[in-house]
User: Fold this.
Amino acid sequence: MKSDVIIIGGGPTGSSLATFLVREGLDVLILEKTKFPREHVGESMLPYCYHLFEELGVLEKMKAQFTRKPGVTFSNPDGSQASHWCFDKVMEGPASLSFHARRAEFDQMMLDHARSEGVRVQEETQVVDVDLHAPDGGVEVRALFQSQKELTFSGRFVVDASGQDCFLTKKIGNQQRFENLNIRLALSAHWHGSNLTPSLANGNITVVHCGGEKLGWIWMIPLKDDRLSIGLAINMDYAQAQRKELMKEHGARGWQTALYLQEIHDAPLVHDILKNATMCWDVVSNGDFSYYAREKFGPNHAILGDAAAFLDPIFSSGIYLGLHSAKTIAPGIVQRLKQQDDSLLRTGYDSLNRGYQVVEELISAFYDPSAIHFPELSGSADHAFQQMKSSYTVYHMLLAGDFFNQSERYLQVIRALKDPAMIEKYKHLKGHAAPEDELRLCMIQSELM
Ligand SMILES: Cc1cc2nc3c(=O)[nH]c(=O)nc-3n(C[C@H](O)[C@H](O)[C@H](O)COP(=O)(O)OP(=O)(O)OC[C@H]3O[C@@H](n4cnc5c(N)ncnc54)[C@H](O)[C@@H]3O)c2cc1C
Assistant:
């Protein structure tokens, strides 16, 4: 049977795109190499996901299954300087309360939902080749079922949503690095029995800035069932230098865990949180990220989500970027298939590229040693900071995920973070943070739930 659209990968990008497409009357097949549920890194979501969940029809499931996230806390390693950024300061209504989710459960829920909308899903089916020039003008996709049985699928259009595997991007030889962003290594695990700070207990993701040659940070994400996700993202050069030393004692298999434990305990704030905690997951590593595909679509293919581009995860943007891309590109695929017209695909990708540029610049400002650091700024825009209110509002909006609406204006503000004259102007705003007061403003408001 020939599908209208074959999607490679059943992660959040693939499953949400499939749902949008099947609602337009297209026959959609997802090929997913693993058997769900499968674990995945990336558990904290931006509030801009909220309305997309509503539109996809999964909002009530999100509320029933996952913990809520009212904001972001940036801290220095010992917790003496911290800023709290509460989404309800810039967003009205229930969307300001976002979510944290264990990905095995979230991705399964999204894929099941796509199935319930009429999408055909074939798990344990790894795509191994794609012919974009099949004789009938469509595509032919070759796959291996359970690593053994060869299968062939034909379709009119294929979408690569294979995440960091970047299946089609690599096949076409289309991958490019973001010049501004360093190569990094991420190591992460889950913990039970942590001694949560008020901000974590409240649901804020906490980002600890490691600074120096590490050019790194630690995330702490409070999940349900007394689980705290803690991850470390550090500069690859620093990680490699440490590796040489740690290999001597811990060997090829143990050095990553040793590095992870060394670095998270090096931050006194994290060390205190973990005093009575036990690690309940083997350390997972993700490396060498930050790339994009030069060409993201053609006459019968498109590339979306992490397969199209991946930016450093410091601002927890990945899932939102994937969902938003699915929503933006779905009408383009429909138009392409129904009218042989590419115009919506072109304008959709132009808009996505501008939003990704905003995220890229925000990330490079975060790592720039000469730029203002988030932990030093107050996340509050109270009366003492009226003159800078609009800038704070912009940062809040960016932390919430507003990448696509006012890209040019936001780019100007982000560049100001790195401009020495502007830094001088901001100096008097540093050190004004009043963590307890601000935290009160970041509390989960029960009426929003
Ligand atoms: C260290 C780190 C921390 C992160 N933290 C966050 C965070 O806090 N918040 C956030 O929003 N994002 C975060 N992200 C990013 C987030 O995980 C991704 O952006 C998100 O998972 C992208 O979804 P996707 O559907 O595009 O890809 P994926 O979720 O990776 O899904 C791709 C799917 O394709 C399947 N697949 C791959 N190859 C094939 C093939 N050949 N055939 C068939 N199937 C295939 C895979 O099995 C997978 O299920 C983080 C990423 C990293 C690396």
Remarks:
- Residues 8-14, 31-34, 40-45, 126-127, 161-165, 167, 186, 231, 233, 286, 289, 305-306, 313, 316-320, 322 surround flavin-adenine dinucleotide (CB under 6 Å).
